[in-house]
Specification:
By secondary structure, the chain is mainly β. The protein is built from 3 helices and 12 strands, in the order αβββββαβαββββββ.
């Protein structure tokens, strides 16, 4: 399996594709992993459920990500699906730097870093790594999952900003 960032002929330039994808609302999560007792994490908007039988998720991480290198070593990660009240956390984990957990409260669940107050929590073990351009897609089996009581409204990324979904009566 090879990774390439070369653009195939007949495809849209990256800035055109980026503009088109800005119109798509995406959920926001912090993907976490543990390395020798130290928590690591990064903000992602490219994740989704993949299968119910067996329960699986899909997460996409940048090939240059330190977190991807860590997940490759451990084979495990957590997904903290953020609520609308957690935009500051999304921003903190999106910044570069080695210690994104500095000053951030967290606990351990299933041996992985978990952020309090998240809309839901998922622990997963990687089943397969799929090279995809400048990212690697992780196909993973869910080993634990929990939704927050009362279900906070989700944090979303849309039109290059963080926000939330406003439900409409059906």
């Amino acid at each position: 399996m090879t990774t390439t960032t070369e653009q195939p002929s007949g495809t849209e330039p990256p800035h055109v594709f980026r503009d088109a994808m800005a119109a798509v609302a995406s959920p926001v999560a912090v993907v976490t992993a543990m390395d020798d007792g130290h928590p690591h994490g990064t903000t992602v908007s490219a994740f989704t459920s993949l299968s119910l039988t067996p329960p699986m998720v899909l997460v996409s991480l940048d090939n240059r990500s330190r977190l991807l290198a860590l997940v490759r070593r451990t084979g495990r990660f957590g997904i903290n699906v953020l609520g609308a009240h957690q935009a500051e956390l999304a921003t903190a984990f999106a910044r570069s730097g080695p210690d994104r957990f500095d000053g951030i409260p967290w606990s351990t669940s299933q041996g992985l870093p978990r952020l309090p107050g998240s809309a839901s929590w998922i622990a997963a073990e990687v089943h397969e790594y799929v090279a995809a351009g400048d990212h690697t897609v992780l196909l993973a089996h869910v080993t634990a999952a929990e939704a927050a009581t009362g279900g906070p409204r989700p944090l979303t990324y849309h039109q290059r900003s963080l926000g939330t979904h406003t439900p409409r009566p059906v």
